[in-house]
Every structure is written in structure tokens, then in C-alpha cells.
Design brief:
Two copies of one chain form a homodimer. Chain A is about 75% helix and about 0% strand. The first copy, chain A, is mostly helical and about 230 residues long. The N terminus and C terminus of chain A are likely disordered. At the A-B interface, α2, α7, α8, α9 and α10 of A face α2, α7, α8, α9 and α10 of B. Chain B binds a DNA duplex (18 and 18 nucleotides) through α4.
Chain lengths: ~230, ~230
Amino acid sequence: MDRTHRTRSIEAATSPGSAAVSRRARLRDDLEQVILGEAERVFADKGFDGATVSDIAEAAGLSKQNLMYYFPSKQALYERVLDDVLDDWLRSMNALAHSDLPMPQALRLYIQAKLEFSRRRPAGSRVYALEVISGAKQYAQQIKSKVVPVLRKDIATLNRWMEPRQVKVSAEHLMFAIWAATQSYADFATQMQLVTGRSSLSDAFFAQAQETLTQMVLGALGSAEASA
Amino acid sequence: MDRTHRTRSIEAATSPGSAAVSRRARLRDDLEQVILGEAERVFADKGFDGATVSDIAEAAGLSKQNLMYYFPSKQALYERVLDDVLDDWLRSMNALAHSDLPMPQALRLYIQAKLEFSRRRPAGSRVYALEVISGAKQYAQQIKSKVVPVLRKDIATLNRWMEPRQVKVSAEHLMFAIWAATQSYADFATQMQLVTGRSSLSDAFFAQAQETLTQMVLGALGSAEASA
DNA sequence: GTCTATAGCCCGATAGAC
DNA sequence: GTCTATCGGGCTATAGAC
């Protein structure tokens, strides 16, 4: 994903050609990453409107005025967070459409990748979920151009596998269920912790999640027995 | 659910015993319902912090000062919305634990009820989801006391059915998947509409959702063949 | 690049006339 | 119960000294 939202003008302003440039650029990049990381957490916790620039700045260890030297506006910072999360997600997912494995195995890995993303980047997942649930008013265009085509292709691929086998469940809804279930291990972690009584979610917990969800998907395809 | 958050003091102030009382009380109740309905929509669209009292008042057709005559604070209004949604949800769900049907049939009805709730009250579902995803900072206590016990019981019931049959998937994660998938038809409706290209979700769409999800659950239990 | 100061705005909530 | 008026506060964003 491109970095359109970055403050290019300021980068261009750092005197080019001097020996100090790369070092300064490095520091700037590091600081940007710190800010983006904290922004992701704060936006996930409080939503776009609930989060304040001060909150994020304090978490990143600088003043809000200083933060706004690196990012031109709260809105731009928010979009960068969403861009980075979406970018990471698209890179992490091995699309069903581009896999040359047999379908049950491809689905198994698909579920694993999505589940691992929820675990590795829960705050990012939650920021994305908050945006979509609230109607994606700020981000609908990006979703339409970057997410929807990938998902449509995956559904079509799954459908092409299912049809000759006369599987009668819907490929579309099967994919919806996979997204929803895997996503929920980031989004609803709070509620899961309350139900299980655990304060954090362990390796074993996620392994069970993966196993159960895989059995559900393969079970619906009528090949549960082939997956033990 | 009780109505602790209602402005009892004002109700008590309406001169009791007169013929006009019931009519006035009726109007008040109606107006309260209008406000609550609009509040649910606005909170779902913008979150607690993004929503303003003015937004809700305008949607309900009164001034914000007038709205705050009926609800003492934005916070109280928000909690009433969540209370009402949770109340409705608990009444709508025929808990697995209290069903005397055979398990596959009980699960089928459970999925149907949850799916119907997502369809009937999408805004309420989304307000609840936004609250949980953001860490349920305002509502954790209510979830702990009213939601978690029900879900724990359902998981235990399902587990008691699974164990003698040596089903090796996890009852806990099976239930998590059911909640997540059914909930997503309210929460991620926007994204689903973008993927399917439809502007609204039809009867047939929900029927397919129900069928597919049921097959997934029963398939994981190894009784897919018993469900046609 | 990092400060202080502040503009400009909108918010939730209250007071009080009618 | 419904108005007008307003207070006090927090917010994003900008200006300008250093």
C-alpha cells in the first residue's frame, strides 16, 4: 500500500544530500512508528471521536502540538492507521484464489492466517471493525477498492470447487462465517475473557479455536472425516 | 430488566390520581420510546462519543434541552439503550440450557433466534458490539452479571451433550463461532452489502445464512447427515 | 523540532421565564 | 413541559518564539 497520507512535504524539507539526512529520517520514521502504534491502541479503545490527539501524544511520549508536526491532522493519522492495518492484512492473507493447494487444505491455512492476524494485531482489527460497524463512512471507498475484490474472488474460487461436488451450503455465507468467527477473537476478546474467566487468551485457546472452526467449515462441506 | 435509569422523580411529580395522569404518562412513555429508538440508531452510527445529544434530539424531533428533561444525562440515555437491547436479547434467546428438544434441533432454533435478532434489531446489536469492542468500559459489570452466566450455562449444556458422543471440537469455541457469525449479520451488514452488491439484505439471504451456519455447526458435531 | 499561547468551535449540562 | 440564554470545559488546529 502506498503512503499517500504521509507528510511528504516535511520529509522533502529535510535538507537533502547531507550526511545527517538519513539519520534524521531514521529518527522520524521511528517516531512515526511509535505514534502509529499508540494511535492504533487508542483508536481501538475509544473510537475515532472518543480518542483525543492528547491521549495518543501522551501514550507516545510527546505533546499534542508536537504530534501534529508529524501528522497534519487527526483524520490523516486515523487513515494512516487504517491503511497500515489493511495493508498488513492483505499481505498476511494468502488469498484462497491464489492457492494451488487442495481446497480443504487451503481453507485450513486461510482460517489459520486470519486467526493469527486477530491474535497478532488485535488493536488494528478492532479499529477496522469499529469503522465498519459504524457504517464505514470514512473508509467505504478503500474497502470497496481493496477488500471487496479479494473477497469476491475467494468466494468465486470456493464456489467453483463446491459446485461440481454438489455441496448445497452457500460459499458466500461460509466465507462470511469464517471472517466473523476469526475476527471475533480480536473484537470480542473482552467478552471471551469474561466468559472463560481468563485474563488473557493462551496458545492452547487459539489452537482450539482453529481446530473447531476448521471442523465447522469442513463439516459443512461434507468432508469432516477427511480432516482428522 | 428493571428501569433503574428512568427519571422516576419526574414521574412521581405528575399529580397522581387525576384523570389526566394516565394520558400524560402515556405521552411521556411514547416520547421516551421515540427518543430511545433514535438514540439507538445514532449511537450505532457514531458511537457514544461521536453521537451528540443534539443529533439524537433532532432525530426525535425536539431540542436537546427538552431531551434532557426526559433523560438526566447522555450517559443515562446510553445505558438505557444498552439495557433495553440486552433485555430484548435475553427475552428473545431461548437459552440452550432450558430447551428440552434434542440437541441438533435446539441448536437449529438457537441459531435462528440469534440471526433473527440481528435482523430485527441491527442498530441495537451494533451499539452492543461497539461497547464490547471498545473494552466494555462502561458496561462490563452488566455483561458479567447478565450475559456471561447465560452463555456459560449454554456452553456447559452443549458440552454435556457432546462428551458421551466423543465429539472432539470445543463447545466453547462452537458457541463463540455461533455468536460471532450471527452477530456479524448486524455488525458487518455494510461490508456484506458491498461484497454482494445489494443495497439491502433479503429474506432469501438470511435464509441462506441460517442454512449454512446450521450445516457448519451440525457438521462439526458430526451429524450433518441427520439434518437434511 | 519542540515549546507556549491561544484562536475558534462545539459539547453537555444548568438556570429560569413562560 | 417547552422555550431562550448561557456557563464552563475540552477539543482540533494554528501562530510564533526559541
